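A quick word before the example. In earlier lectures we treated sequence and structure as two separate objects. From today on, think of them as two lines of the same record. Here is Iron(III) transport system substrate-binding protein written that way.
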Amino acid sequence: MGRQLIIICLISSILLVALMGCASEEEAKQLHIYAGLYEDHAIKAIEAFEKETGIKVKYTRLSAGEILQRLQDEKDHPRASIWFGGPVDTFIQAKQEGLLTPYISPNRQYIDAIFKDDEGYWTGIYAGPIAIVSNRLWLQQNGLTVPKSWEELLQSKYRWMIAMPNPNTSGTGYTILATIIQLYGEDEGFEYLQQLHQQIGWYTTSGSTSGRLVGTGDMGVAILFAQDAVKFFKEGYNQIVISFPMEGTGYEIGAVAIIKDGPEIEAAQKFVDWVLTKQAQELGKQVGNYHLLTNREAISPMEAFPLSELNIVDYDHEWAGINRQRILEHWKRQVEIK
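And the structure line, produced from the sequence above:
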């Protein structure tokens, strides 16, 4: 009887190990992603990754702020393993809250230090500046020239005709807040934001939607990333005109990161390795996405705006990420509810 029990235990152990191996193998063949970039870009990248690796991907498209909220809500039981795209300020807050896990990909060697976290919690995959985007016809009808400063947006003719992403949900919106605060300082920055709030006719959930509203003529002006406006112009919204505030503007670093305790760590690492390659980064322009690329060997689209040619404020992404929650709470109290 004792011998039979030992044999049964051995067989059970072997079966358990086999089942664990199957589960691990199955895990390596699938990947769940939260995507914060354009859906067409996400699909293009995912399809190429699936073809190259055989790993099947399921994704959910959300704004960066919404992804961060998901990670906070799912902290004890993460449902996804990769955060793909969106301004790095939100990634930095996620790192501070213990929601990401570090990974030093061998392909990080092709990414300059300014575009990656020293500890490997996130790595930049694209970049782009904040711009003022206007509808040329609307400007002409209202006797206005193309706005080229933050101060111009406070003129009475712009009242209720400016669209801006909501910083509570949109990483773009928060980048705008952080840009103004780092340009003017907190006190003067919030004074400006209070005045700008009186001009806003539409706060959009996502960053790019504000640009489309300008393209359709529903809004006269919007504040968003320049590359998003280029995309809309190329799609046929040819009244769009792009300008940059002479006082200075901020910029995003769009990143990728592995979610802490995500269900597919091996597949997640493979995705990070892949998305940092020259070939992966150059896929975006095939579907009309005109970011600056972070891989030194990748060729950025000719439509991208080089940061070196613009008046870029001394934008501190680390500060913006660490202080994101505090800044948003201040904005809600002093601006949004008034």
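Notice the following. The first strand starts at residue 30 and ends at 35. We will return to this example when we discuss secondary structure assignment.
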